[in-house]
Structure formats: C-alpha cells, structure tokens
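Consider the following assembly input.
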Amino acid sequence: MRLAKATLIWAALAAAICVPIAAAAASPLLEWRGPVYILAGFAGIIALGLTLVQPLLIAGYLPGLSAYRGRRVHHWTGGALVAAVVVHVGGLWITSPPDMVDALLFVSPTPFSPFGVIAMWAIFAVALLALLRRRLGLRTWRIAHMSLAVVIVAGGVAHAMLVEGPMETISKAALCALVFGAAIKVMADLVRRMRATSRRESPARR
Amino acid sequence: MSTLVLSRRNILAAGGSVLAIGVSGLLLPARAQGLTPTESMAGGANNYRKGAAIVDRIGKGGFWMSGTVRRAGDGAPLAGQRIQIWAHTTEGQEHEPQSHGATLTDKNGSFRLEMPQIIPIFGQPHGHLAYDSGEFKTVFLRPVMRSAKDTSLEAHFVLQPA
C-alpha cells in the first residue's frame, strides 16, 4: 500500500513535468525555430518544472527521500534551476539580442517579460543568499527565501501563462496550477511550524 | 454583423486605447482637432535592417500585411511612401534578409504586401513595419495578431514632418 502510494506520487510528478515537455516537443512552431531558440524555450519549461519539484523536496513530500536527502537534492535542484534560467535567457539573447535587451531593461512591449525578469532576479538572489546561509541565521534565511520564493512562483507562473509559444495550453495551465498549489501548501505548513516553534520558545508572548 | 471577441488581448488593447486616448487628450489639447501622429511602438525597431528592397512579394507569400499612410493634422493620404515590413515567418527569422521587404503606398495612401505566414516569436505573433524615408519623422510599428492563425495584419501610419 505504501509502495503503491509512493509510486503514484512519483508518477504524478513525472507526468506533471513530462507531459507539458512532450506536448511542447510536438508543437508545429518548432519547425520554424533554430536549435538555440528551441533549447532556450525548453530550458524555460524545465525551469517551470523544477519550480514544482523544489517545494516538494524541501517539505519531504516525495516518498523515499529522507528529510536530509530531500534538502540535499533541493540544493542541487536549486542550482539546476539557476542553470536552466541562464540557458533560457542566454539562448533567447542569441536568438534576438534586441528583444532580450528590451526585456531585461523592462521596456519590452510583451506583458509577460517583466514577470520573467523579476522571477529571474529572485532566483539569482536566492542562490546567492543560499551561499551565505550560515551567516544569515535560520530565521532571517527562511523569511528571505520564502519571500523570494513567492516572487519566483508568482512571477514564473504569470510569465509562462502569458507567453504564446510551443507549450500546449492545458498542460501548461495544469503545471502552473501545481507549481502554485505546491508552493502555497509548503509555505503555509512552514509558517505554521515557525509560529509553533516561536510560541514554544517564548510562552510569555502568547 | 460583426462578432464581439472578448479575448485577453482585445481587452488589453481596448483598455490601452482608452488610456492612450485619454492621456493624449489631456497632454495635447492643442492637437485635439487634427489627426495626431503615430508614435513608434516599444520594440518596433527590433531586428530592423536599413534599406530593404522594394519587392512584389516577400518569399512565397500567403499572408497579407496592409495599412494606410496619412499626414498628421488634416489626415490627407500620402501616396508613394515607402513602408518596410519584416517578421519571423515560416520562411525565416526576423533578422534574416529574406524576411525583409518594402512596398510603396498607392494614390489613396494604402499599401499591401504579400509575405510568408507570420508565426509567434518571443511569445507573441507580431510583425514589424517602418517608415524611414526621411521626409517625415521615422516611425516603427509592431502590431500583434489577434490569433496566431490569422493570415493578415494591418498597421496604420500618421506621419508628421521630420
């Protein structure tokens, strides 16, 4: 029974990420795109998928991964997310430098660009803060990471939903809904735990 | 009988137009009586190539880009004006030479150029047009298609003396 549940959770996660990738791979638009542009687009889809994996890993929702292993994998997946965003932005820059420059300078005519650029900076900021984690203290780090995670999820989802590209609409919307739902669930749980901890530590404040 | 299409883009466009008209009315009361000149659009000049040749058709065609060119103030149609057109199409990327071409307006100030099907690039199916002949102030337009399946697109220029 536990095995069945574990299998189901992993299969659902794999489907949530692989179905949109497969649907985008079948898009007729790819025929008229160069390899660099195609790579950049798929790096964006992978980045969206990793945004779903991240909260599940850190919250220990993925069966078979201990809390310690889950946290270690979360660090590596975070690194992969930074790499995916760099490939996404770099590939788009090579494809059309003026369009990418407009987006980075927030003067692009496309409504989705600022959301993506803000999410990108938030991802880079988390990566940087993660390297300085020990100096920040657990509480400061958690508040900073969670605030930036809200920006990453909201910005990334808005960016993806507004883009008209090779992603198929329904599988894209489903992945975005899961990214959003997972982030909200994990953050709500963490806030509840942090409140409980601070109440235990200082009962006088109650 | 025209059907009302309530898409996100239409609502955004309508809202934007209302805002633009409202704001320009407030900022430019002196010009309210005449036809105001078209402003260049954000990103309009991206992947522009100077001096594209006047052609009968860009590539194999199948998609129509059309529009009008008029004079600011009295709205008089401007004949013989060179309009340059480019886009990411089924036959090439935006920056590639074969994706660019130019045409001239007729005596009614209208232009119409056949080109390959435009496909979404950088998240939006859009075309680029430029007036850059010098007599009037240069204008770069970047119209967005209502649907990626559309087989035509329009853009209109109101030019002011350079």
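The radius of gyration of chain B is 16 Å. Ask yourself how this observation constrains the way the partners meet.
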